[in-house]
Amino acid sequence: MRRGDSGWRMDFGNGILDFGSGVTESLDLWNIVMSVNRPTRGVPLPSFWQVLGLAAVVCAVIWLSQKFPRQSESAPEQAAGLGAALRNVEELSARGPDAVPELVALLGSNDRQTRRMALYGLGLQGANAGAALDAVRERLSGDDVEFRTYAFSAFVQICRDPDDLWLTTARMLADPDPTIRETATRLLEGTTPSPIATPVIPDVRERNAARLQESRAVIASVLPMAGSENASTRALVIKVACRRDAMNDDPSVTEMLRGLLDDPDTTVRVAAIVAFAARGAAQVDQVRAWLRASNPQVVNAALDGVRWLGPEREEALPELLALVDKIPGGDLPGLLAALRSMKTLSKPAVAGLMRRLETLEIRVVSSSGYGPLKPQRNTVMEVSRRLESLPALLEMGAELDDMLSLLEPWLQPDHPMCGRQAASILARYRPDEARRHAARMIEQLEQGPSDTIPRVLQDLCGLGPAARDAVPVLIRLIERQNPKGIGIEYFSVETLGCIGPDAAAAVPCLVSRLDLAKADLELSTRHPIIVQTLGKIGPAARPAVPALLKILDLPPPPEQVPGENIPLSNDYRPPYRDVNTALGQIGDGSERVLSSLRRQFDAPGDAQRRATAIKSLVLLCRNRESILADLVRVLDDDSPVVRLLAVRSIPTAGNRPLAIGGLTQALHDLDPWVVSAAALSLGRTGPEAAGATPALRELAAEVRNETPNGIRIPYGTVSDLKYLSSDDDARLARLSVAAAARQALEAIVPAGEGDREKAD
Fold it and tell me: How far, in Å, are 228, 282, 338, 671 from residue 276 at the CA level?
């Protein structure tokens, strides 16, 4: 938008909208609004809702300019009238709360623009206009969409009663105008900041509790709107309720979704099915029906819901088998996961799945030497999908020899990541063939051109211990210290780590590369992989412990000061997490190591650093009662990850009163994984944990606690910690807080005694 010779002009691509000189005065709106909000007058800068009100004013100006083109003599008069109204609002707003009665009086004006400006002015007053709230509320209905927009913006800025705000905003989900509905949705979802001032709560758990309370209030406000005759409103209720019910455990939301599973509107019905299945609430008959659906979204939701069915999932096998030949290639991983959960019962699907995988289209433009390819499609993703399916097929009963036809083409591929993945699978299932393959690759390292070495090293990484004969060659590659061969050094070190304990001969070479003489970007790149490799080598890397402890003692790099031209990338960033992990893998349980790990518990702002320290301390102090006090201390940590690790590591032998006290405290945690782990640990202590039975019974009686932990908080998606990497973690994901509490009660309260307590 720019001022022209005859007025304001707005460019839209090749088209120009000319408002004419008569509207020039009215379009100086931003200066007017900003003058109303000058800091010298004690009013803050415009909020989202004030900007929304300004947008409504601009829309009114555009509407006015279109309704009264500049050829009309009345246009300047109309524009001047609007400008005068804005100035009147400015003058009134400058008077603060004293202006509210006059602004309310202006709501009864016969002039349409005056009424709008009065609403805008009341919104600028915020909480000071509380006496006008009912008058503004009355303007939320009517045929004038722009007037409703002004009224809604003003209401949200004025209202300070959360219950009133959420109930009124929820009703706006049924407004005829889609823009108003979307604005209300963003506020209810929390994507638009609430104008209600919320004090800053330093404690993370208290802050999360406050957010949870707000979310539950919003859900209670929007659920009645699920009965609206407007399909768009019903869809928005699903969106808001599921967004606010982040833990998928509110039974009222589940029942709302259940009531919309057969909605006459396709969009609403699909949204309800997807959300309902994601909550693990579907029964096997429902899942089977959805697997037969023609809508791919419904089918994918059903596939995801299969894993939450329990043993009865086997009843859905006929529908799963029927999908083998018709499901799109991109959805095959979901089908494989569902079939894999049934183990060998799904063997009839193996032949069809192999046929599908063999015919997946993979087009690659080959390149010479080492470097990025130019795939015509996402080659890595497609190849990975094929390779990752092999372990699943083997668990389903496929023959290993049949799998080689899918594996062999990628053992020497053009793209190194594919070869590494293929080599890893070969080493897992055919170790003898993997060693022969490693011998061929070692020859390539010794005789091949240098530009192919990085690709060969990548493939060699996948072979793991089967590549143990390559250790001498890898050491020589590292000792060259070629400034231009950083990639070769990196992959050589990584390959040693994949080989593991059999690479012990490389420890002196690796320790020599932990040079702290200079702190620069090159060290930040090299140190993490060296530290990781030393940890994977294990106890044989104990000579590296002093150097690792020196890294832990280094201070973090200074934070960049805004405005200073100091790139953070030039500062050495110590790999604290990798060092913590490596110390636990190496197994040096000396006091100096334990003290260094304990100091990591207090690292601010780095939950993973604290978590890796706890993991290693547990490994090094497995049979030491002294760790108990450390673990109980971190039960107040801000991070649920740290608290979960502590709860799961608290020993049930030794100082039982301290352990039981800490675990009982953890039963009141907001994280369901922490609570479930605490309940199971209390159950292992037996009758001595009788003091925790009231809290356990309360947990078992709460309906929300029937939802599996993996649905409430899917920790399994946190790739860096990989909670679902063990059977114990998988069981904890499928378990619910209520089930864990009942198991603990059965172990703590002797049979029959629990019934007597209930009777009393």
Answer: 19, 7, 18, 22
HSE-up of residue 384 (Cα within 13 Å, Cβ side): 9
pLDDT of amino acid 723:
34
Q: What mean pLDDT do residues 326-354 have? A: 88
pLDDT at 52: 54
Instruction: Name which of 39-48, 443-452, 488-497 the model is least confident about.
Output: 39-48
Q: Specify the amino acid at residue 355.
A: R
Length of the chain, in residues: 760
| Structural contact between residues 456 and 445, judged by C-beta atoms closer than 8 angstroms | yes
SS3 for 55-89 is HHHHHHHHHHHHHCCCCCCHHHHHHHHHHHHHHHH
Sheet of strand 7-12: strand arrangement: 2-4, 7-12, 15-20
CA distances from 281 to 243, 275, 305, 699 (A): 17, 9, 8, 20
What was the pLDDT predicted at 224?
96
Tell me which long-range contacts 588-597 makes (C-beta under 8 A, separation of at least 24).
Answer: 588/542, 588/545, 588/620, 589/620, 589/621, 592/549, 593/545, 593/549, 593/620, 594/620, 594/621, 596/549, 596/552, 596/553
What contacts 119, CB < 8 A, 6 or more positions away?
Answer: 53, 107, 136, 139, 147, 150, 151, 153, 154
* Segment 82-98 mean pLDDT: 65
Amino acid of residue 406: L
Give DSSP secondary structure letters for 102-131: HHHHHTT-S-HHHHHHHHHHHHHHGGGGGG
SS3 for 516?
Answer: coil
Residue in 498, 421, 441 with CA at minimum distance from that of residue 464: 498
The whole-angstrom distance between residue 293's C-alpha and the CA centroid of its chain comes to 29
Q: Give the per-residue pLDDT at 522.
A: 64
Mean pLDDT over 8-37 rounds to: 36
**Scanning the structure block, which residue is given the tokens 């004293």?**
98
Distance CA 655, CA 628 (A): 8
Q: Which of 352-361, 609-618, 699-708 has the lowest mean pLDDT?
A: 352-361
Q: In the structure encoding, which two tokens stand for residue 275, read together?
A: 């959300």
Contacts of 252 (CB under 8 A, 6+ apart): 219, 220, 223
Residue in 106, 105, 12, 113 with CA at minimum distance from that of residue 60: 113
DSSP state of 616: H
Q: What are phi and psi of 14, to 5 degrees?
A: -90, -10
3-state secondary structure of 626: coil
Residue 10, classed as helix, strand or coil, is: strand
Alpha carbon distance 415, 421 (integer Å): 11
Report the percentage of the chain scoring pLDDT > 70: 74
16: phi then psi, degrees, rounded to nearest 5 = -125, 130
DSSP code for 464: G
The closest of 690, 611, 619 to 646, measured between CA atoms, is 611
Look at 470-474, 488-492, 729-733 and tell me which has the smallest mean pLDDT. Answer: 729-733
Model confidence band, residue 380 (pLDDT cutoffs 50, 70, 90): low
pLDDT for res 103? 85
Label residues 491-530 b or e (16+ Cβ within 10 Å = b): bbbbbbbbbbebbbebbebbbebbeeeeeeeebbebbbbb
In angstroms, rounded to a whole number, what is the distance separating the alpha carbons of residues 538 and 497? 10
Three-state DSSP class for residue 495: helix
pLDDT of res. 501: 97
* 651 within 8 A of 659, measured Cβ to Cβ: yes
Query: Residues 264-323: pLDDT tens digits?
Result: 999 999 999 999 999 989 999 999 999 999 999 999 999 988 988 888 999 999 999 999
Q: What is the mean pLDDT of residues 457-463?
A: 88
% of residues, the chain, pLDDT over 90: 42
Structure tokens at 45: 């800068």
